[in-house]
Amino acid sequence: MDERRTDERRTVKVSKYLSKHLRHQPERIGLTLDEAGWVEIDALIAAAAAHGFRFTREELDHVVAANDKQRFAVDGSRIRASQGHSVEVDLGLPPATPPAHLYHGTVARHLDAIRAEGLRPMNRHDVHLSPDRETATRVGARRGRPVILSVDAGTMHRDGHVFHISANGVWLTQRVPPRYLRFPEAH
Hints:
Layout: H1 2-24, E1 39-40, H2 41-50, H3 57-66, E2 72-75, E3 78-81, E4 102-107, H4 111-117, E5 127-129, H5 133-141, E6 146-151, H6 153-158, E7 164-165, E8 171-173, E9 181-182
Antiparallel strand pairs: 1-3, 2-3, 4-6, 5-8, 6-9, 7-8
Keywords: NAD, Transferase
Enzyme class: transferase
Family: Belongs to the KptA/TPT1 family.
C-alpha cells in the first residue's frame, strides 16, 4: 500500500511539473514550444534533468496514460498540454458546435465578479467549460466547496460565440458574458 501511495505521489509530482512547463513556463527550463505547443520529449526530459528534476520516458508515458483529465497529448516523439496554456500557442482546434448546456465549477467567493463580468479566461487563453456537472464539480472542488454554473452554450453559439473542444473533452471559448450564465438558487 505504501509503495502504491508513493508511486501515486510521484505521478502527481511529475504531472504538475509537466503542466507548469508545458502550459506556463517552458522558458524556465530552457524549452521552446512550437507554435502549436509541441516539444520533443527527449528535449523535455533533458531540460528537466539539467534543472534538477529527473524523470524517465516510462514515467512520462505513465503520467500521460494515467492522468484522469488527459492533460497531455503525445504525437510520436512530441508532447504538449491539451489546453490551459498561459503562453501563446495555437492548438489548431477547429470550431465546434457545443451542446445546449455546458458547466463551470467555481467557488462562492468568485460569484459576485462572475455575475458582473461573466466568465473570463484570467491568465489562460480561453474559459474552460465542462460537458457535465460531475466534471465541473471536480474542477470547482480544487479551490473549496464547489458552485456549479450552467452555461447556455447553445444560445451563445447561435449568437456568434465560437467554441472549440480540446483533445480531452474540455470546451473552450474566449469568454462567457453574464447573460448566458445560470446561477444556483442557493447563492
